């Protein structure tokens, strides 16, 4: 046999455990990112812009004053349906990729036990993982930034220096830049897995041809 049954059992068991833990953790983390388990609130991180009193010529800000930034945790108790959905999707994609990978390992191991390593099932899982990686590399940072932007608008919080709050500061919503914010390692992984899926299809054809000669 190409792979021993004892080793196959270990691989399938390990992949099943990892996949199950990933599923439970995905449900837990995604639910927490959408709704706080304590009070049902929705929280996100935004940059808080704080203009300084000393005016410096040539620097951006109100009246040429210097503006410093720091991170702030914003919490809202309003429905905020769209921000919650966007955050939930962005949080769930990495876990979905891991779960698909574990299912792919189980399917491939079963094929190896049956001495048929190349099958359409393996190609499908490779294509799914590739697709999730490609989509996640763009969607995760984009949806995260968009969720904070929409939430700030729906909460009615000051988001520019034109209408600062009583404290004289305002919040800066996240902004997605394709060149800066795209997860390039995740994108590269998706491309590589896509190429492997294409080669896998060639392996399936060669395996069928060799079986026909026997």
Task: Classify the helix fraction into a percent range.
Answer: 55-70%
Sheet with the most strands, sense and barrel status: 3 strands, antiparallel
Our estimate of the beta-strand percent is 5-15%
Q: For the largest sheet, list the strands in their spatial order.
A: 2-1-3
Radius of gyration: 24 Å
Unreliable segments of 5+ consecutive residues: 54-62
The gross shape turns out to be elongated
Order of helices and strands: HEEHHEHH
First and last CA, distance: 17 Å
Number of helices: 5
Structural class computed from helices and strand pairing: alpha+beta
Number of strands: 3
Average pLDDT? 82
What do these coordinates show?
This protein is α+β, with helices and mostly antiparallel strands and 214 residues long. Helix content is 62%, strand content 14%. The protein contains five helices and three strands. It has helices at residues 5-34, 81-113, 120-155, 178-181, 184-213; strands spanning 42-55, 65-76, 170-172. It has a three-stranded antiparallel sheet with strand order 2-1-3. Helix 1 (5-34) packs antiparallel against helix 2 and helix 3 runs antiparallel to helix 5. The radius of gyration is 24 Å and the shape is elongated. Mean pLDDT is 82; it is low at 54-62.
Task: Name its key features.
alpha+beta, three-stranded antiparallel beta sheet, 62% helix, 5 helices, single chain, 3 strands, 214 residues, elongated
């Amino acid at each position: 046999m190409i792979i021993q049954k004892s080793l196959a059992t270990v691989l399938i068991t390990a992949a099943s455990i990892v996949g199950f833990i990933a599923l439970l953790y995905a449900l837990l983390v995604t639910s927490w990112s959408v709704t706080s388990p304590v009070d049902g609130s929705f929280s996100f991180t935004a940059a808080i812009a704080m203009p300084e009193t000393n005016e410096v010529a040539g620097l951006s800000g109100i009246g040429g004053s210097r503006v410093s930034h720091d991170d702030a945790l914003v919490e809202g108790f309003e429905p905020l349906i769209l921000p919650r959905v966007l955050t939930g999707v962005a949080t769930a994609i990495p876990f979905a990729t891991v779960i698909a990978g574990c299912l792919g390992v189980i399917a491939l191991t079963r094929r190896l036990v049956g001495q048929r390593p190349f099958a359409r099932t393996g190609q499908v899982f490779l294509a799914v993982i590739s697709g999730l990686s490609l989509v996640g590399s763009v969607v995760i940072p984009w949806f995260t930034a968009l969720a904070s932007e929409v939430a700030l608008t729906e909460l009615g919080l000051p988001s520019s220096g034109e209408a600062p709050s009583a404290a004289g500061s305002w919040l800066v919503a996240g902004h997605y830049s394709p060149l800066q914010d795209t997860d390039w390692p995740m994108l590269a992984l998706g491309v590589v897995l896509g190429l492997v899926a294409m080669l896998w299809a060639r392996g399936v054809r060669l395996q069928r041809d060799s079986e026909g000669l026997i």
